[in-house]
Amino acid sequence: MQLPLVLLLLSLPGCLSIQGPESVRGLEGGSVTVRCDYKPRWETYRKWWCRGAYWELCRTLVRTTGSQLEVKRDRVSIGDNQSHHFLTVTMEKVRQNDTDTYWCGISKTGRDLGAPIRVTIEPEGTLLTTACYPTNGHAGVSSVSYSR
Q: Ig-like domain: from which residue to which, for each copy (predicted)?
């Protein structure tokens, strides 16, 4: 017997509770900022950013304290806008070897909630085009960047 589609979607990590862009691109040496939106009720929960293609094996790079205070660790910072229900992660001084799958997530009892984001870092001198993606009914835009 097959699960109805709704039940299948609800069983996926973070599905419908937290969402981010499918992918983002940045230039080597620059910074990449990712916004992940979450549903109301998760405001005071700790949020995190981890790296790795597999949910169970990803390595947490930074996490919030459960407040709106920004937390920075190495080249990565995370902030939680609890009044508007989104978290923002910024990776600075990115390198091509930072290209990977990352997850923005919410810590909770039982299985955490998470959404995968493919981050691609292009070599210096690459022209990045503008891309639009929907974010909770709002259009998100990444800017055009060029570096020598």
A: 4-120
* Domain total of the chain: 1
In this model, does residue 85 exceed pLDDT 50? yes
Which range marks the domain in which residue 131 is found?
A: 13-142
Assign residue 42 the CATH number of its domain: 2.60.40.10
Burial zone of 79 (CB within 10 Å; 0-12 exposed, 13-18 middle, 19+ buried): middle
CB-CB contact of 86 with 36 (8 Å): yes
Q: Specify the pLDDT at position 16.
A: 74
- Asked if residue 6 is part of any domain, the answer here is no
In this predicted structure, the answer to whether residue 53 has a pLDDT above a threshold of 90 is: yes
